[in-house]
């Protein structure tokens, strides 16, 4: 029997089948639905983790910690989107998937290393700040960005604790990463959302100068890379770079910081 599908004219475009929820089965759409377009966040998430593992040595709980950390970020992203939009049902699928991934892996880490619970109050406070700004629909506020930086930086201490290493041993690396990550907040604003703002540009340059001094006092081996960061903060805002170009440059900078911190440690 010949069906309507059999009699389509050659070359005629057809639509992909819809999923049970009425959405297209297009893989690209599925990725966009479950992976946020926050490309810069991945370097900020991974840098403290990688530095921590490199400094204290890998342990088996570091693997579930990594997956829980990344899935937890995705869970928090969509949770804050739900808070911002006041439409939690819109993000129910993402919240369900990432909660199911995060919860058992985080529990595995806690059972293996109960001492990580000491960081729970700090994460609770920082996440509460993020949630408040999401509710106010001001996620791009400076304080909110700095809270996100602190959330990421604390992961270095968590990695050390998971390895059974006293966090004090990685405090210099922790400080260096915070100097860098906090500076990226100001720098990226001068490149995109606050382009042309003299106030932000001056604040960014002043901060990077102070960070250079602080990093040099921390370890002179950090001075060259923080000098590079100061130069990029002072020079690049005058150039009209696309966000993708800004992102590539920042990936290179994060790799330089990674190398410098490991050498200095």
From TrEMBL:
Lineage runs: Bacteria, Bacillati, Actinomycetota, Actinomycetes, Micromonosporales
Q: Where are the transmembrane segments?
A: 39-57, 63-83, 95-112, 118-135, 142-164, 170-188, 209-231, 243-264
- Positions of the region Disordered? 1-29
Which organism is this entry from?
Answer: Micromonospora globbae
Under which name does UniProt file this protein?
YwiC-like family protein
Pfam families assigned: YwiC (PF14256)
Domain of life, per UniProt, equals: Bacteria
Query: Which key words tag this protein in UniProt?
Result: Membrane, Transmembrane, Transmembrane helix
């Amino acid at each position: 029997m010949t069906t309507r599908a059999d009699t389509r004219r050659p070359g005629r475009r057809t639509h992909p089948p819809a999923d049970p929820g009425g959405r297209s089965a297009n893989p690209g759409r599925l990725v966009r639905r479950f992976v946020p377009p926050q490309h810069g966040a991945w370097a900020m998430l991974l840098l403290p983790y990688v530095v921590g593992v490199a400094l204290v040595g890998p342990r088996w709980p570091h693997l579930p910690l990594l997956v829980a950390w990344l899935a937890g970020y995705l869970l928090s992203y969509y949770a804050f989107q739900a808070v911002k939009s006041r439409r939690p049902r819109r993000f129910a699928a993402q919240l369900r998937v990432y909660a199911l991934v995060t919860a058992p892996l985080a529990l595995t880490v806690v059972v293996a290393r109960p001492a990580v619970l000491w960081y729970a109050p700090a994460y609770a406070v920082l996440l509460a700040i993020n949630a408040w700004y999401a509710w106010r629909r001001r996620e791009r506020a400076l304080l909110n960005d700095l809270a996100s930086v602190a959330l990421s930086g604390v992961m270095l201490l968590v990695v050390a604790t998971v390895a059974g290493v006293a966090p004090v041993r990685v405090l210099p690396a922790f400080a260096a990463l915070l100097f860098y990550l906090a500076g990226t907040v100001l720098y990226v604003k001068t490149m995109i959302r606050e382009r042309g703002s003299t106030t932000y540009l001056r604040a960014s340059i002043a901060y990077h100068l102070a960070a250079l001094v602080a990093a040099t006092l921390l370890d002179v081996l950090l001075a060259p890379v923080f000098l590079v960061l100061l130069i990029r903060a002072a020079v690049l805002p005058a150039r009209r770079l696309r966000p993708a170009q800004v992102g590539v440059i920042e990936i290179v900078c994060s790799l330089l910081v990674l190398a410098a911190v490991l050498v200095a440690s």
